[in-house]
Amino acid sequence: MPELRFDPIRRRWSIIATERKFRPHEFAQPQPETSSPEGCPFEYGQEAATPPEILAYGRQNHQPNTPGWQVRVVPNKFPALRIEGELTREGVGIFDRVNGIGAHEVIIETPNHHAEVADRSPEELQLMFKAWRERLTDLRRDIRIRYVLLFKNKGRDAGASLPHPHSQLIATPIIPTVVVEELNVARNHWAHKERCIFCDLIHQEKAFGDRVALETEHFILLEPFAASFPFETWILPKQHSHDFALASDALLLELGKVLRDFLRRIRQLLADPPYNLILHTAPSPHPRPGQPQYWTTIEYDYHWHIEFVPRITRIAGFEWGSGYAINPTPPEEAARFLREATSDGEQP
């Protein structure tokens, strides 16, 4: 029977439409033609086609903006926000306006045009995550920046304009609404119980077991109880940590291993779908007058995590009008499919 489920962390309702109960193969989509690296601005030898690099790993000759890199970070050529200028805030009647100060960068994850995350080594993925960590740390030094959102869009239906593997960051002078909601819930939970709500979630889901998709020594992958989308998955470090910037190299290597394993299972089940991968971590530690003092307890009450959403369903009128999601695959079923799948592409 269908259920309405409430997520206390995101404060959202979802309808789990159990009577639809789609199996993984029913979400499979026609595969696009393989793209050619010819003319791609992210290829070796095309470094001049991007803005000058901010960061690069792996190059032996130490000459910037030349081939030989393994990971390269550049400003977005068409940025949503710009780093230059003075931050201003003003009211416009009942509205608020902040000028477009921030940053928009592209992390070119590999020189290999066809090397998706599931095809790379854990060491290559560790290097990608190190670039995330370094750019996050560096941008926080700017007192105008309140939040740095790191994300990956794979496939045109997920918002990727170029097929070459890359992720992005957008740094903003305000904390995004979705993150504010999580921060407020985490602070309230800590204020009443002196426990992290995410740690409580991990302990509870391990005890129940039916929504645990994968587990390693230091990470757990959960299908949220009130998942908004089929196979929506949260990747959480099992040891409490509020800030991705504090992750060790060893932890990032394990994160690369678990992400590769997970995405190989997803590829097997859902025929390599487009997806979004989003990092939620602590905001920049710059106090602001009149703003919630997140940084006073955030070390204890927040817990960084990565959210994965495959783009295999569409939002329609009811979802837009109600704010509810309709998910045709119960998260317990999604977790079971993922546990039973294999990461080598073979059927279990």
Automatic annotation (TrEMBL):
Cofactor: Zn(2+)
Any GO BP: galactose metabolic process
GO MF assignments: UDP-glucose:hexose-1-phosphate uridylyltransferase activity; zinc ion binding
Metal-binding listed as a keyword: yes
Major enzyme class: transferase
Gene3D superfamilies xrefs: HIT-like
Ranges for region Disordered: 23-45
NCBIfam families: galT_1 (TIGR00209)
Family: Belongs to the galactose-1-phosphate uridylyltransferase type 1 family.
Name of the protein in its database record: Galactose-1-phosphate uridylyltransferase
Organism: Thermoanaerobaculum aquaticum
